């Protein structure tokens, strides 16, 4: 099964934000068992880094930081081979560095960050024909 969990936050009449990624449900092995029941997990299909300059790391638990680091490692390993421009590769590397390198939010850099995001996506989409489905 494939679906999109969409956690979000909205300020009525002001703004809203949602984090969207397509995930696939797949079986997984766990340390603890519940009879003969098979446990499932969500495997991300769309891999886009979370913008590190928009995150206040002081609000995250160690486990959340580890999850983000693992997700960004997977993103780096999967997406980097598809990129052909230095700009796109540099952007991806800057966005997928270990989260332990950050201690505070730098959200004041948002306009620059968004401009870089648009340039990197445009670059990635025009790099070459690939098996990646962009619908």
TrEMBL record:
Organism: Littorina saxatilis
UniProt cross-references to Gene3D superfamilies, sorted A to Z: Creatinase/methionine aminopeptidase superfamily
PANTHER family: XAA-PRO AMINOPEPTIDASE 1
Domain Peptidase M24 C-terminal: start-end pairs: 38-98
InterPro entries associated with the record: Creatinase/aminopeptidase-like, Peptidase_M24_C, X-Pro_aminopeptidase_P
Domain of life (superkingdom): Eukaryota
Protein's name in the database: Peptidase M24 C-terminal domain-containing protein
SUPFAM superfamilies: Creatinase/aminopeptidase
């Amino acid at each position: 099964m494939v679906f999109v969990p969409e956690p979000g936050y909205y300020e009525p009449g002001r703004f809203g934000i949602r984090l969207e990624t397509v995930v696939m449900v797949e079986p997984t092995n766990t340390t603890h068992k519940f009879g003969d029941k098979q446990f499932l997990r969500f495997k991300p299909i769309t891999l886009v880094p979370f913008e590190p300059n928009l995150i206040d790391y002081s609000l995250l638990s160690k486990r959340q930081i580890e999850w983000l680091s693992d997700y960004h490692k997977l993103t780096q390993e999967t997406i980097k081979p598809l990129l052909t421009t230095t700009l796109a590769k540099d952007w991806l590397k800057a966005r997928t560095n270990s989260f332990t390198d950050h201690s505070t939010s730098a959200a004041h850099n948002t306009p620059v960050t968004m401009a870089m995001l648009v340039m990197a996506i445009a670059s990635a989409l025009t790099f070459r024909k690939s098996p990646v489905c962009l619908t």
